[in-house]
Specification:
332 residues; 7 strands; 62% helix; 15% strand
């Protein structure tokens, strides 16, 4: 009888302890899944959930604030994730928050991370949809890495072919590598180019030094460079020179026309220049005039000695002498 009571007591104690452990476990699980707290529903649309499952945690700034309640595929490009968020925590989530899917550690389960927004907007309410951001998954990374490896292999093959051609002396690079004369010529050209650059730098330095020595206020060069009035005067001088040049051109044109007319056979000047007998006639006429003048002088001298005209010439001589004395008196 005593043994039966002891057995019953142990069974009862086991049942009570088991019930307590079950209640505590249910409470802890419910508390972890936010079953016993007041929640709000938030939605986010993703193109790839990367293995997210129901019951996975939802974190806001690294703190667990809810769980994934439902995952529904709308079409081939959109997957809607429903999240149960504690109402007291939802007051801190703004409408411009961004949801993304990440892993809990290196090999942990997937979680939904809610990143705070940048603007100070109103807090979300139940059944709001927040923006989402899809990170690159491991499969996408491996696919991209595979393509990169294939491209690297092709690039390596092409580079090997180019290297072989260069070593065989083909192309410009091959000629540069194998032809020592061409290399020497290129070095000489680069040396000459360097010398030219140095000479140019020296010339520019000298020019800057010369410009720095110019007195902009007193020197003629400075006045021409800075004085607008002097610049206007120089412009006027050049304008006048241009006008004079045009006038000279017109005069030259007219002179050419006159010369052309002078060359015409019907022109009097052309006749005077080109007629060969005219100079001989003029010389003959001058000779005759000279002889006539000499004979006229002889005749006048004969008249002076003639008694009929001697009185007249003496009278003219006295009159001329009198006039000379009168002029000398007036001059004194």
């Amino acid at each position: 009888m005593k043994k039966s009571k002891s057995y019953k007591s142990k069974v009862g104690l086991f049942i009570v302890l088991g019930t307590l452990l079950l209640v505590v476990a249910l409470y802890l699980i419910g508390n972890r899944q936010h079953i016993f707290s007041k929640n709000i529903q938030l939605y986010a649309v993703f193109q790839n959930v990367n293995g997210l499952q129901l019951g996975n945690n939802v974190r806001y700034s690294g703190i667990n604030v809810g769980t994934v309640n439902n995952i529904e595929m709308m079409n081939n490009a959109e997957i809607v994730v429903q999240m149960m968020i504690e109402e007291k925590t939802g007051a801190f989530i703004k409408k411009d928050a961004i949801a993304s899917i990440g892993s809990d550690g290196l090999v942990g389960s997937m979680v939904v991370n809610i990143i705070p927004g940048k603007t100070d907007l109103q807090a979300v309410i139940s059944k709001d949809t927040i923006a989402s951001y899809s990170k690159i998954g491991t499969d996408d990374m491996l696919s991209t890495l595979n393509v990169t490896n294939e491209n690297a292999a092709l690039l390596t093959s092409d580079l090997l072919q180019i290297t072989d051609r260069v070593l065989n002396g083909e192309g410009v690079l091959g000629a540069l590598v194998s032809d020592s004369i061409l290399t020497r010529d290129i070095k000489k050209m680069l040396y000459n180019l360097n010398q030219t650059t140095r000479g140019t730098n020296t010339a520019v330095t000298n020019l800057n030094a010369l410009i720095s020595k110019i007195d902009m206020d007193k020197s003629p060069a400075g006045i021409l460079l800075t004085d607008s009035i002097a610049g206007s005067q120089m412009k006027n001088v050049f304008s006048q020179l241009e006008t004079s040049s045009m006038a000279i051109s017109e005069a030259t044109k007219m002179l050419n026309e006159m010369v052309f007319e002078m060359k015409n056979e019907d022109n009097a000047i052309n006749y005077l220049i080109n007629e060969e007998t005219l100079p001989r006639n003029i010389d003959s006429t001058l000779i005759h005039l000279k002889r006539a003048s000499e004979k006229l002088d002889q005749n006048m001298e004969a008249l002076r000695h003639n008694f009929l005209f001697r009185g007249y010439f003496r009278k003219q001589a006295r009159l001329e002498k009198k006039n000379n004395k009168a002029r000398e008196k007036d001059e004194n």
